[in-house]
Amino acid sequence: MREELNGILGWVDQLNEVDVTDVPPMIGTGLAMPRQREDVVTDGDKREAILSNAPDRVGPYFTVPKVVE
Amino acid sequence: MSSYRIEGNTGAWEIVVGLEVHAQVISHAKLFSGASAEYGGEPNTHVSLVDAGFPGMLPVVNRECVAQAVRTGLGLNAEIHLMSRFDRKNYFYADLPQGYQISQFAHPIVGEGKVEIELADGTTRHIGVTRLHLEQDAGKSMHDQDPLRSFIDLNRAGVALMEIVSEPDIRSPEEAGAYLRKLRQILRYLGTCDGNMEEGSMRADVNVSVRKAGEAYRTRCEIKNVNSIRYVMQAIEIEAQRQIEIWEAGGTVDQETRLFDHVRGETRSLRSKEDAHDYRYFPDPDLLPLVIERDWVEDLRAALPELPEAKRTRLEQTYGISRYESGVLTVEQGIADFFEQVARDADARLAVNWMLGDFFGALNRTGATIETSPVSAEGLRELLGLISDSTINGKIAKEVLEDMFESGESASAIVERKGLRQVTDTGAIESEIRTILQTHADKLAEYKSGKDKLFGFFVGQTMKAMKGKANPAAVNDLLKKLLSE
């Protein structure tokens, strides 16, 4: 068991031999342009849906335990 | 370099200030959803399922908000990054339903730029801009509605903000005020933020530290969410004083976030300062890197309005006005436009004097702004035309302007209604003067014996007798002639 673990750690150590100084971190494979929306109001006015899962509410507001003294 | 110093027991201290300004982007919809970005509205009605952080909802960036950030970057002479990225800034608070704010951390859309400020003594300085990035606003918490609960309204959650970070280049409260006023003026000219600090559409976090001349920076404190330029200036002074007292007593200033209490005139500790790693920033996997095209940036640049500095210089050259006058006239675009309508192809000197004098005076008195002024640019232009062509004199014109503000009538209508036409008929003026010289024979004798100051008395009497309508130049000339007879 110990031998196997040491083998794995040794293998991981090998990764440190690669110089990645100037390689930017890879954050994904998507190179497509992101979709963008036009500046038009297309949503909103659905208060009941928005509040439907609220554990607690008063009238049109969500309520939470007081967060300031 | 500013010479502002605070005297402590151990000598003079210099202050070092950097500002982070949050400017709400002018747009119809929010940064990542189609909900309205309009201020106000019934609670929780300008909210989409994206803004409320419902599971599975995906953000889609609003192109106009990106354009507004680019315009602002161009207005700040800053570099525009054709590739930027959105990151998640994680923190837990009731008005942030997603549990993270979508912001730009490692790769902002706008890089280094600069703002030129002008101080009271006429000197100018450049304040560096480190970066500008796009991020979401949070919702609003209300703590005074219920003894045990806070109320949450998400109307503002997801509205686009620009965070504009300055270099620690500011060295006095005055410079901080000048920087904020200049930044607000540029944003308003660009139409990218209304700069309304009372409604919270522009707020500042103020980083303050103190040091002895020539030293490296000492620990700074951040004063959060200061919502007026005056308070920013006060907070800097008070916080610097507090830090100096700590250093001079042998203590050390802790890096922390503080709150400015303008009623008590003090800053109070809010929490120890978070570092970037406390927020566990990472690239938002819901959003691809934001890539914009160079051509599009150039199109936006070509469509930028004339900015304050350029407008100032042009007004000075076109109308021959002073640096001070051009500064006042370009504080707002509306004022500059108004002035140009009044002064175009007319007597520019007369237009400046009247706008900065009686016209602004009347606006202040009636509580109107340039946009709500009861007297239009065309109306003022007509009035000044009546002075230029000698229909009325300057003194009568003041009376007419007041009447215009009250009645809303045109200058010529008022002149006709009240019979205010200037008397330039020298015969009429001369006979009036002769009568006055007879009635005041004693004064005439004194004048002749060398009391020159009485000249003004005779002018006054003549104008009074003619109900102010005499041509002042004609009165002067005739008086001189008749008194020397």
UniProtKB/TrEMBL annotation, chain A:
It comes from the Bacteria. SUPFAM superfamilies: Glu-tRNAGln amidotransferase C subunit. InterPro entries: Asp/Glu-ADT_sf_sub_c, GatC. Signal peptide: none annotated. GO terms for biological process: glutaminyl-tRNAGln biosynthesis via transamidation; regulation of translational fidelity. PANTHER family: GLUTAMYL-TRNA(GLN) AMIDOTRANSFERASE SUBUNIT C, MITOCHONDRIAL. NCBIfam families: gatC. This is Glutamyl-tRNA(Gln) amidotransferase subunit C. It comes from Swaminathania salitolerans. The lineage of its organism: Bacteria, Pseudomonadati, Pseudomonadota, Alphaproteobacteria, Acetobacterales.
TrEMBL record, chain B:
One of its GO terms (molecular function) is ATP binding. SUPFAM superfamilies: GatB/YqeY motif, Glutamine synthetase/guanido kinase. Its EC number is 6.3.5.-. Residues 337-483 form the Asn/Gln amidotransferase domain. It is an enzyme of class 6 (ligase). It catalyses: L-glutamyl-tRNA(Gln) + L-glutamine + ATP + H2O = L-glutaminyl-tRNA(Gln) + L-glutamate + ADP + phosphate + H(+); L-aspartyl-tRNA(Asn) + L-glutamine + ATP + H2O = L-asparaginyl-tRNA(Asn) + L-glutamate + ADP + phosphate + 2 H(+). GO terms for biological process: glutaminyl-tRNAGln biosynthesis via transamidation; translation. Keywords: ATP-binding, Ligase, Nucleotide-binding, Protein biosynthesis, Transferase. Belongs to the GatB/GatE family. GatB subfamily. Allows the formation of correctly charged Asn-tRNA(Asn) or Gln-tRNA(Gln) through the transamidation of misacylated Asp-tRNA(Asn) or Glu-tRNA(Gln) in organisms which lack either or both of asparaginyl-tRNA or glutaminyl-tRNA synthetases. The reaction takes place in the presence of glutamine and ATP through an activated phospho-Asp-tRNA(Asn) or phospho-Glu-tRNA(Gln). This is Aspartyl/glutamyl-tRNA(Asn/Gln) amidotransferase subunit B. The lineage of its organism: Bacteria, Pseudomonadati, Pseudomonadota, Alphaproteobacteria, Acetobacterales.
